[in-house]
Every structure is written in C-alpha cells, then in structure tokens.
C-alpha cells in the first residue's frame, strides 16, 4: 500500500519529535500509569487511513504509554458484523470500533458507545492537553449527541466529488468537436443535462477514436450496496431529495405515507442515473466505490462521481493510476435551486462521509482506549495521516505545508472540501440505516439489470421500505 | 454390512414403502409435522386455524410411529 | 458380538464435539427462530412471537425465489458434475502417457479456497479486466457481462461450481470404477453387447451406490454455497444469484434480523434434510433389498 | 470416447483431449497467476494472456508482510491439526459403527451428516456467543484461538470423514479382527494392528480432503477469529476495501496459498483413488 516504508519512517520521526516535547511525554506516560502492558483491540476496515493508524500511530502510542494496540483490519461487511455482535452480546472483545458516519445513529439508539466527553470529565487525569474537540472540522458534529457530548473521534472524512479528465476537457481538438456538436463550450458539468451530454460526447468520441474511453463512471454494482448508496447519497440530493426520500418525522418512505422515495423527482433521478449506464464502461454494473475509482484511474472514463478518499491516489500515484496530473475536481452537477437549498441549510448536494473510532460500552479497557482515541485525535499526527489516507478531520491540517503541496497535485480537492464542505452533509439520523438499505437494495439492483423500470423499482422500493419500517416498529 | 442379522433387528415393513425402525418412523413423523404446518400456513390458515394442523399431524405421526 | 459400551466409547468424542459445536448452536437457532429480534428495531429486545416468522416466510417472495434459485443451481451444478466427472473418470481408466500428470492437473481446482475461486472467476469475467468478456466480444461479437445479464450470471456460477467440484466427483467415480468386478464386462463382451448396452445394464447399476453417494455429498454442499458466489457476484445482478446461503447471510448480518434469519435457516435446513434423507433412504433401501436376497 | 480408426489416431485424439481439458482446467488458475504478475496500472485495457514483465512487488510485499506470515502459519497449524484430529476420531467412530451392535446406528450415521447441511450464516451468531461468553476460563476465551477453529471445523469435517471412511472399514472382512481377537489381541491392538494398516488409503484420502476443507474455510474463520488466529482465507478478503481491491496482491496471496495445498495433495495423490468410497459399500 502506497509508499509505506517511507511513510512509516517519516511518521516515526514525527512521533519521536513529539515525544521529545516534555509536557507531552509526561502526560502520556503519567496518564497511562498502571495501564502499561494492557492490550486494547480494535476493529476497522483495512483502508489506508486505518492501516496508517495500525502501522504508525499504534506503535507510536505504545511507545508513549506502554499500552499495546491490536488492530483487526478486515472487510467492510465483516467489520460491521463483528462490531455489532460484540456490542449486542456485550462481550467486550473490542476496545475501540470503527464507526462509519451513517451507522452512528443506530449505535447511539442502542447506547452501544461510551460517552467520551462525560468519561473524560469524570477522570480529568486522563484528559490530554493536546486533545481539543474544537480543533476538528465540522464533521465531528456527526459524532455528538443532542447534548453535544462526543461519542467518536473522527479518523477519516471526505466528500464525493465530481472528477473529470482535465487533459481531455482542455484539449483544443476535443473542445472544438464538442462546440461543433452541441453549440456550447466544453466545461465541467453544472447540471444533469450537461453531464449527460458530456457523457454522450465522450462515449462517441472514445468509440470513434478506437480507445477505451467512456463518458462517465457509474457506481452501479448490481449485487452490492454501493449502488444503493450512489443513488440515495449522491444522486437523490442533487435532485432535491434528501434523507433517502424518507420523511424524518413520520418515517414514511412512499409518497402516500409522506415520504418522497417514489416521488417524480426521485424517479427522474433514478432514470437519469440508470440512463448514464449507456455511456459508462461495461464494468460499471460490477463497480463498487473502489472499482469506479479504479476505472477512472485506468483512464476509462472522462468524468464521474468519485469518493474523495480516492481522489488523491488517482491524481498522484503513478503506480496505481494512469491519469496522474490529469484530474480535475469540481462539485457534482445539480438541478436548479439545489445549490441555494444547500447554502441556506435546507438541503445538501451530497454526503460528507467518513468515520470515527469510538469505544463500545462493553469494553473492559475503557481508560486505555480513551487515551488511544485522544492520541489519534491530536493535532500533531494529522498532517502525515492526511497524506497517507487523503483524509482531513482537523481544520489546521488544511494549512499544513505538506497538505497544501498535495492539494495542488489533486487540483484543489482539499480546498474544495474546506470551502464547500458545508454544502455536504452526513447521513440522515436514522437508527435503521442498514435495515432500510437492505430492504430497498433488491429493487435498485433490478433497475440496474433492467428487470424493473426506474419508476416501478422506486414504487416497490418505497413499499418495501415502508413495510420494513413498520416491521421494525418505527412506523406505527 | 458385516452382520446381516443385526441389521434387520428392530426393523419392519409397515405401510411405508421402505423398511423402517422406530427412529425412522419418529423422524418421518417430525418431517411430516413440519411440512404440514408450513403448507397449512401458506394455503389453509385463512380458513382453518393452525391448531387443526397440529392435531392432524400429531394423529398422523402417531399412526406412522405405531403402524408404519 | 462385543460389548456395545466399548463401541459407545469410541463414538463418544465424535458425538461430544458434534453435540457441543453442532447441536447446541442448532438449539439456539431453533429458539431464536420463534422470536422477533433485531438489534436495531424500535424495540431491540428479543420477543417470542410463536410461528409468526414462519407465517411471514411462506409468503415471502424473495425467500421463496431464493430457495427455488438454489435448487435450480444445485440441480444444474450437480448433474453437470456427475456427467462430466463420469466421462473424465472413464477416460482416466485407460492407460496413456502422462496420466499421473493430467490427473494432478484435474485435481487442482479442488484445493483452491472457495473465496479464491470466486475472486479468480471475478477476475476472469469482469469487463475491462477479464479476458472472457474481451475475447467473447472480439471473436464472436457476444456481449458477456455477468453483472448485467441475469442468465449469464446464473450460468457462470454453475460453471464455476462445476469447475471447482468436478474433480471430487471424478476422483470418487474413478475409485468406484476401479473397484468394479471384471467378470460381468467380459461376459457382456462375449455376449456381443454394444457399448451403450454395457453402460446401461452393467456399469450404471454397479455404479449406482457410488453415484448416489456422490450426488448426496455434492448436493448438500451446493445447497449451502456462499463464499464463491459472494465473491463473484454478491448475489447479483438483481437477485439472479442470490442463493439461499447468501440471502440468509444478508438478512442476518447487514439487516441484523436474527429472528427472521433463524427461521429462514431452519426451513432451509429442513428442506436440505428432507432432500438428503430421500436420497439416503434410496441408498439404504437398495442395500437392504440386496441383503434380503 | 469415439470409435477411432486406428491406434495412432486414437492416442493422438486422447492426447488432444487431455491437453484441451487441461487448458480449460488451468485457465482460471493461470489467469490468477497473470494478475499476480501485473501491477495495478497494467491490469486494465485489452487483456493479454502473455506475461511480458513480472511485477514482483505483489509477491515480495506479501511474503514480507508479518500478517501474511502469521496467517499462513495459523492456517497450516489449524488445517493439519484438524485433519489429524478428524481422521483419528472418524476412525474410532466408523470402527464403532461398523463393528459394534449399537441401537439406531444407521440413524446416528445419518444424523452425523446433517451437521454439515446447515446454512452457515445464521449459526455464526450462536457460535460467536459460545466462543465469547460460554467457553471462557478466567480470561481466556475460545474466540480467536486456533483450538477454537480446530474444534469447530470438526462439525463439518467429521461427518464427511465418517462418510468417506465407512465404506472402507466395512469392506475390511470381519473375520480378520475376529481372528486377531482369538489370538488374544485387545480392541486397541485390533484397531491399530489390523484395521489401521488396511484402511490406510481411506485414511489418507480422508486426511487430505479434511485438510483441504479446513484450509479453505472462510466464513467461520472470519467471524470467530480476530487477530491471533486469523487464517489465510480471511486474509484474502482483506484486500477488498473501500479504496480499491488490490487484485494483484490478492492473486499473489491466492497463488501462495496453493503451494501448501499442492504439497499435501502431491504427498497422497496415489492414495486418493483407492480410498474414496463415500459410504458406498462394496458388496
């Protein structure tokens, strides 16, 4: 993964530097007094940010405190299964778990997590002077309850952005051909019509030039939740459908029950998205979040919505990407009026996604885990972590010279995230996130294969979501 | 089988198409019990309560165990 | 006849392990199957609901479709494996140069982990990356995309299963063929029977127990396939390869619907046992008939 | 297969047949190897079966990864211990089923195999509870231990082993052990001196297949282990992540897992045919 050896070396250097600062060294070893030799175990998905925490931050933390950190890095599905089983059964196997932003409400509803703010207030000797919640970006708010108490320390955060091939968009020949055909200048799409037009143009252009190029990526894995997420997280909001089309008060999904999951706008959104498949490379129907990134990195698509965590490696890592230096970053295309709604706070244009580490209530080493979470939440470890995993959770990280350097290479992704971040929002505060996703997923899959027309699919999905919510007891 | 006399011990041929011992007959009765209930829930329960199926399958089970 | 207590002693460790790791979990699932229990329901506590889960299940289209699909999958896979395995076993009965080498090659798929098999076939079939869609399109103009066309996906999972498990069938039938007595065949040849007659009247009846036993083992395993298909298609496209093992997995884990998922498992286990028992009764009955002679 | 005119063309046909069927069998494995020899950048585009350059990093970074080494050792230990345990217990069990008068033993025989029929997903939950909460001595749990997996794999391997061995043991003439008893041997001696040598091919096959099943198992290993007892198959799934499936590394790992499996297979290849009878009784 990446240029890990170099990273580890430089990270160790920072760790050493920080441990030579007397106040810090004193705090960590003082606070950990009596906890030396304890082992804390956590579970996370094996992503670059997690691997950095495992390979670099963990050992550094052990050095500072004497507390050992064991990391179980596993697949996305397994991570959920095991964390939930552990907390449900109160077994205490894990002392910290990865909390994806959208599952936090489910966990909070079950009181699965330790209240970090309250626990730190109770034992002030554990509170690190270098851990300050106010230094985090607004993303941290997703992990607070209504009283403002913190339940997870953000470890990664990103937005799903619109990536386009700068080299193609700026190619005079291409520009000319586009203008000749559509009578408009070729520029990153601002709305869905333009997006479709560009997709169509590049697909034909790819065909005629004999290259392997298509107009757009579509995250349309026909048997994986990734496709459901692209619809409800990334496409619906740009059509003004928020919270998955489920009414946040009545928990109704279908129009008849006060929801908007099968509203005309939602149907238009799904139809547009399914329509994009005609201009997407053939692997799109098996593409999850990582595979659209691979498609884009292989230079097979001219534009697409790609998760920001991938933007950095697509734009900079020539071992994995053929489009280094050719990537442009912009906001996703939207329907008229949606940006205004997002600016005023009524809506949003996409998900502000990411995750945090939290402590399960069942943990038997809460003190050690609290120290660990504060350790990874320190200002000083953020910049290198950001380089390793293209994730930013602290405001100050944006100003770090190394991050600024990388920002240039990724066409200002970090700047965009900093400035336009407020237009994006976390997942709706539903405690039934996975359950409803699984209920509607089969119909989205069938829309992808063409077994169902988009409007039929959404009618059925809305009915299934309503039934599931009733069955779960949220809808009376 | 090594011992042929032993094999047929406790086995008999009732009205079931195969030779069975006591375990087999209980097993068949249990299988039928479940099958009948599932069938009932799908097709008959709207008209007749599930209890009827239970009684029916218990009777049927008893017959199989004793005479099968 | 020696004392049966020694016999029980020999069986004891096996029975103990099967009881603790097989029966205890089963009893747990049996109880949960009659409850409503979902960690993230409005009421997350386990509640006894009688036969309600089963009432819902017998009308659950997705579940029934998945069951039907699994049977279809097991049927096509096992039948192809038996036919193909028989021909390969027959071919291995002759002597030819390099026999040991070819036999090793034909045993290879057996030792690959199902999850790696799924990954391998995914690599073969993903458009843009795999050679299958590329060459099928280039040579025959055929659009092969198992993430879009449901029939292709189903067919590919069957082929994958056949590729993975035919070696086991080949080896079993080869073992059975090598232990067949020679005399009936010699006699038949003297009598001037043709190949088909020999196969139909002598080979097949003699092989029947071995074939039934192989069908039994293979069917049982095919009905609970999860890893390979999960890796290859994730159950898609649509619900085209959402076999019952995978369906249950999605209900129990991402959906955390433990009660309903347990009920599903119980019905699936029940159907598997019924199917296998009928096969088994066929095996035993055949043996008993012979014995009665 | 077909009636052929003369011997020369017959053997030519046979060789052609074997070559083609071998290519079909090997194709997926070969493709896995090709992928393992390519970097991520080389993967997309028009696929070629030729390996023009060998991207060794997939292999070097896998082999030097301490997690991979640990997983590999765990897998070898677990699969081998399970194979030995299962084969031994199955020998005892089949001997008892074959030679002793036990009421309902045919039913018992069938019951053992039903343990292999359950759809695995839902049984993970009770097993997880058993492993984390019930089997706990002081602070030691069965969860994330090798012994935990070794015992669990017995549940689906023992029935299979009993089924494979049954025919073998039944086929050993009972007169042989009776004669030994007359000579004053005890049960243990009969089992080890008479039955064991004769059942060797069957035991070898049972051992190999059990080993392979244990080596290949994924779902249970993924759920019931965490850090210390993780196996190589769970390691394979770790390459599928949000930020990209590392196909090259995954293929390289898969190729490497083939090596021990091939060794085991090679060791006992010649026993396989003699020993596979699957409960089918030779009359």
Radius of gyration of chain D (CA) equals: 23 Å
Strand order of the largest sheet of chain D: 1-2
* Count of alpha/pi helices of chain D: 13
Estimate the mean pLDDT confidence of chain A: 89
Largest sheet of chain A: 7 strands, mixed
Distance between the termini of chain D: 29 Å
Residue windows where pLDDT falls under 50 for at least 5 positions of chain D: 279-283
What is the CA-atom radius of gyration of chain A, in angstroms? 23 Å
CATH secondary-structure class of the largest domain in chain D: Mainly Alpha
Global outline of chain A: globular
CATH class designation of the largest domain in chain A: Alpha Beta
Number of strands of chain A: 7
Uncertain runs of chain A: 1-9, 15-23
Oligomer: heterotetramer
Please count the beta strands of chain D (DSSP E, at least 2 residues each): 2
Comma- or semicolon-separated keywords:
heterotetramer, A: about 475 residues, alpha/beta, D-Maltodextrin-Binding Protein, domain 2, 2 domains, 7-stranded mixed β-sheet, 20 helices, globular, disordered N terminus, B: about 70 residues, mainly alpha, 3 helices, elongated
3D structure, described in words:
The complex is a heterotetramer of chains A (476), B (68), C (293) and D (283). Chain A is of the alpha/beta class. Chain A has 20 helices and 7 strands. Chain A has helices spanning 4-20, 22-31, 48-65, 76-88, 104-109, 116-122, 166-169, 172-182, 192-208, 225-235, 264-276, 289-297, 308-316, 338-344, 366-376, 382-389, 401-409, 413-420, 433-449, 454-472; strands at 39-45, 68-74, 96-100, 153-165, 303-307, 327-330, 352-358. The radius of gyration of chain A is 23 Å and the shape is globular. In chain A, 61% of the residues are buried. With 68 residues, chain B is mainly α. Chain B has one domain (4-67). Chain B has helices at 4-8, 22-44, 50-67. Residues 1-7 of chain B have low confidence and may be disordered. Chain C has a single domain (19-292), classed as MetI-like fold. Helix content of chain C is 73%, strand content 1%. Chain C contains 12 helices and 2 strands; from the N terminus they run αββααααααααααα. Chain C has helices spanning 4-32, 52-57, 61-93, 99-107, 114-125, 131-140, 150-178, 183-190, 195-223, 227-232, 244-252, 258-292; strands spanning 35-36, 47-48. In chain C, α3 (61-93) packs across α7 and α11 (244-252) runs antiparallel to α12 (258-292). Residues 288-293 of chain C have low confidence and may be disordered. Chain D has 2 domains: 1-55, no CATH class; 61-275, Orthogonal Bundle (MetI-like fold), CATH 1.10.3720. Chain D has helices at 7-36, 40-43, 57-63, 66-99, 105-114, 120-134, 146-171, 174-182, 187-198, 200-216, 219-224, 232-237, 247-275, and strands spanning 136-137, 140-141. Chain D is globular.
